[in-house]
Structures are given as structure tokens and as C-alpha cells.
Design goal:
By secondary structure, the protein is an alpha/beta fold. The protein has 16 helices and 17 strands. The strands form four sheets. Strands 8-14-13-12-9-10-11 form a seven-stranded mixed β-sheet, with helices on both faces. Strands 4-3-16-15 form a four-stranded antiparallel β-sheet, with no helix packed on it. The longest helix has 24 residues. It is globular, with a radius of gyration of 21 Å. It starts with a helix and ends in a 23-residue tail after the last strand.
């Protein structure tokens, strides 16, 4: 079943179906407790990204190699399950999650960052800071409906989402915009000569020598950059010194260099332009228009680095009335109707989230797929390219995969069986290895994950 979905993804980037003959898939849904095809989504997006890497290796002068992906392994990789120095890492802020409003509707609040938490508390008339508890928030929401609070919070730049049904989501203008978009958008930006990639040594990884500049933080973008690093790319993660990160950066930064630049300063902008001059792929997760306001929109980057690939990530798409809304995986699940539908299938008294953050992970893998397919187009057609993905586009695709009868009855796998240990800049890291297997060049991370700012803002020589 998954194969046809990989074929569908592949057709968005290429009309040549021959690479699909080298793909081997194992496993079937359900693999984790969900009534949705989360395993199929994980496996299909992973397979598409890995197959694109194999095809890039082929056009660089090496024989096509086999690619295999196991569904359970791919889905476990999407769980962001890891340990630091033997302790399970990650977790959520205690105020984050679902709340019932006064009219019986549900709202999901994201408070993992202090400024998001304090914005919600201020809107509710509660004291900002870590001392406010969930009971206080629950009591304050008695005076709101979910839609009222979502609207007010969005206007204040807070990160919340009302829990909708599928039919309520479908009635929104944003849903209509998303339904008319492909899963991955490929947009040519003007003319540029081809930037021919050099031939590969026999044992070299597919993306050896390809430079990827990653300006993302949570969680889809880092997953996309991590996949490209596993295929051999030089990935330089650039963070702002003024913005916080989530703890998962220790797991998603495997294989990457990590630098700090403040793009609101002349020095930061100059440094980024210097990096871009020899960058092949630029990945960014700012809200639509955000990074363009700093001088690094797709047209500007194409001028700085002709023939480069510009990959844009957003929550709700690059068009429509919700394009500027902040959003994370859990919130998009709520807004689009998944949590309501999952809760109904489980006969739960409250909405129910997916067992993994599949919108983040599948979207990140689609970023990696899109970046590589655009590189292939650039090799054949020239031009600079803009690749656009969003959590909502991935959600629309996931809904189209259908439901899994009896999916909620399956037992959760033991994630510990998949962990491998390595040293990192955060301590001893135990995390899930990459689930795509290659017959000739194993996917691997040759660099350990390191804290932001460990490396200078320059490409390795």
C-alpha cells in the first residue's frame, strides 16, 4: 500500500519512475496506536527522501543503489525519543496541552517557550511566569469559547488552536487553499546556469560536497536538515543568539555544524550573504514573509547564489488568511480535525493526539525530498528553485491516506530497542538511527550534535 503513496510523492518531483524499481518496503499499518496511517506517512516520506539521495548519487556517476525502509523503524524515528546521559530527554511545559472552555469546546495551548506561555497567561488575566498552574488556566478559560480564545490569541501572536471537527476545518477558507495545493510545491525562480555537481568517489555518500544552510528551529525543519546530513551533505545550522530552542535540538542536530548569527545586525546579514554565495540548498522555517523582511527571500537568495535551492517551511501554507499564524504539529493536528477524530475513534471523553508528531517529521522528510528533487531539476534544467511545504499540506495528505481499522488496538513498540549510543556536545546521546538503508553507502551522521554556536559561521574546508 505504501508504494503507491511513494509513487505519488515521487511524481511531484520527477516524471522518471525508474528509480522506484530500487525501493524495498517492509511492514504495514498499524504499527503504533492510531486510527490514522501514521506508519504509512512516515515510511512513504522517508522512502521518497532516501530514494532522491540515491538518484543524486546516480547522476554523479555512481551506479543506482537499493533503498529499503521498514515502516516500524521509520515511525519510531518520528517519535523524537532519545536519552541524554541515560535519562529520557524532551518533555513539555506543564501548562501545555488541552483545556475545556466554558461552552464545552476544546482548545490546545503551546507554552514550551516562555514568551508564548506568558502571552497566553496575560490574555487570560493571569500572572506571567512559571508559578501559574493548569487549574488557574482551566478556571480562566471558563469565560471563553475555543474559537474566541483562538482568535484573540492569534491576534496577540500567541500559539493556540481550537479543536475542530473535520467538517469545521473544511468550512474554513484556509482549508480550501490547502486542498488546492500539491503536497510539495516546486517553483522556478528565473534563469541560472546549471551548477554541475562533481563526480563521487566509489564509497562517498550521495550528497558529499553539497552545502545546506539551515535556518529552522522546531521540529520539521531540523528533521529535514538531519536527513540531508545522513546522506552526506555539509549541513550548517544557523540559529539566532536571541531565540530559544527546544531540548530536541540535541537529537535533531546529529550530523550538523551549528553557528549563531543575528540577522537583524549588519554583521549577521553580511555573514549570511557570504555563506549563501557557495550554498546549494537554503532551508528556512520563518513564517511567510518573515525572512524576506530581513533581505533573504527566495528572489534575493537566488540573486546572491544563482542556481541555488530555496526550501520554505510554514505551519498553514504560504497563502490564505492563516498564512501568518504561528503553529506547531500538535496545534495543526487540533485545528485540522485530527484530534477530534482520533478521540472519537478511541471513544475518549477528550480529543486525542497522534502517538508521534507525524506532521512535523513527515514534513521535514518532504523538505529533504523537495530539496533533492529541485537539485536534480537544476542539474537538468538550470534555474533557481523554491520548494514550499507546510504542516497543513502534509495534514491534508495524511487525511487522504484513509483510516486504519483497529489501529488504536495495537500495542506501542518498545522504542528503547532502536536506540544507538554516541557522544555529543550535550552528553552521551542515545537516539534512533536513520531508518532508510542503502545497499552501498550506509546513511550515517559523521558529525556529533553540538550546542548552538559551537562552530564558526563558515563552511568547512
Amino acid at each position: 500500500m505504501t508504494r503507491k503513496h511513494v509513487e505519488g510523492i515521487w511524481s511531484l518531483g520527477s516524471s522518471d519512475s525508474r528509480p522506484l524499481e530500487y525501493l524495498s518496503l517492509s511492514g504495514s499499518d498499524p504499527v503504533l496506536p492510531s486510527s490514522f496511517a501514521v506508519g504509512t506517512a512516515a515510511q512513504a516520506s522517508m522512502a521518497a527522501a532516501a530514494l532522491a539521495a540515491a538518484e543524486i548519487r546516480r547522476i554523479r556517476g555512481r551506479p543506482m543503489q537499493g533503498v529499503s525502509v521498514d515502516m516500524l523503524h521509520a515511525t519510531v524515528e518520528c517519535a523524537t525519543y532519545y536519552k541524554i546521559n541515560g535519562e529520557i530527554a524532551g518533555g513539555w511545559d506543564r501548562l501545555m496541552g488541552l483545556y475545556k472552555c466554558g461552552d464545552g469546546s476544546w482548545i490546545r495551548i503551546h507554552t514550551n517557550f516562555e514568551h508564548h506561555r506568558d502571552g497566553v497567561l496575560k490574555l487570560l488575566g493571569l500572572p506571567p511566569g512559571p508559578d501559574t498552574n493548569r487549574d488557574d488556566v482551566q478556571a480562566a478559560l471558563a469565560d471563553w469559547t475555543a474559537i474566541q480564545f483562538e482568535t484573540a490569541a492569534s491576534n496577540q501572536g500567541c500559539v493556540v488552536a481550537a479543536v475542530r471537527t473535520f467538517s469545521e476545518w473544511d468550512g474554513l477558507e484556509q482549508a480550501k487553499v490547502i486542498a488546492n495545493l500539491p503536497l510539495v510545491e516546486f517553483i522556478r525562480i528565473g534563469d541560472a546556469p546549471t551548477r554541475k555537481l562533481p563526480p563521487l568517489a566509489t564509497t562517498a555518500s550521495p550528497l558529499t560536497g553539497i552545502r545546506v544552510l539551515e535556518l529552522t528551529r522546531i521540529l520539521a525543519g531540523p528533521v529535514g536538515g538531519r536527513a540531508l546530513a545522513a546522506y552526506g551533505a555539509d549541513v550548517l545550522l544557523v540559529n539566532s543568539p536571541k531565540l530559544p530552542n527546544i531540548s530536541a535540538i540535541s537529537e535533531t542536530s546529529r550530523g550538523k555544524l551549528s553557528a549563531l548569527l543575528d540577522l537583524k545586525t549588519p554583521i549577521g546579514k553580511t555573514s549570511l550573504r557570504e555563506l549563501l554565495s557557495s550554498t546549494h540548498v537554503f532551508m528556512q522555517g520563518y513564517r511567510p514573509g518573515g525572512i524576506a523582511a530581513l533581505g533573504f527571500g527566495s528572489d534575493e537568495v537566488a540573486e546572491i547564489s544563482p542556481g541555488s535551492i530555496y526550501v520554505s517551511l510554514s505551519a498553514y501554507g504560504s497563502d490564505g488568511p492563516w498564512m501568518q499564524r504561528r503553529g506547531f504539529d500538535s496545534l495543526v493536528q487540533s485545528a485540522m480535525g485530527f484530534n477530534d477524530a482520533e478521540g472519537m475513534a478511541a471513544q475518549s471523553a477528550s480529543p486525542k493526539a497522534f502517538p508521534v508528531q507525524i506532521l512535523d517529521h513527515a514534513t521535514g522528510l518532504l523538505m529533504a525530498f523537495g530539496a533533492q528533487m529541485a537539485l536534480l531539476r537544476q542539474q537538468n534544467e538550470g534555474g533557481s528553485w523554491n520548494v514550499r511545504v507546510s504542516l497543513a499540506q502534509t495534514g491534508h495528505w495524511l487525511r487522504g491516506l484513509g483510516r486504519v481499522p483497529g489501529g488504536l488496538e495495537v500495542q506501542k513498540a518498545d522504542f528503547n530497542e532502536y536506540l544507538e549510543r554516541s557522544d555529543s556536545g550535550f552528553g552521551v546521546l542515545e537516539a534512533v538511527p536513520h531508518s532508510a538503508q542503502f545497499s552501498e553507502t550506509p546513511a550515517k551522521w559523521v558529525r556529533p550534535s553540538v550546542p548552538p554556536g559551537t562552530n564558526p559561521a563558515q563552511w568547512p574546508t
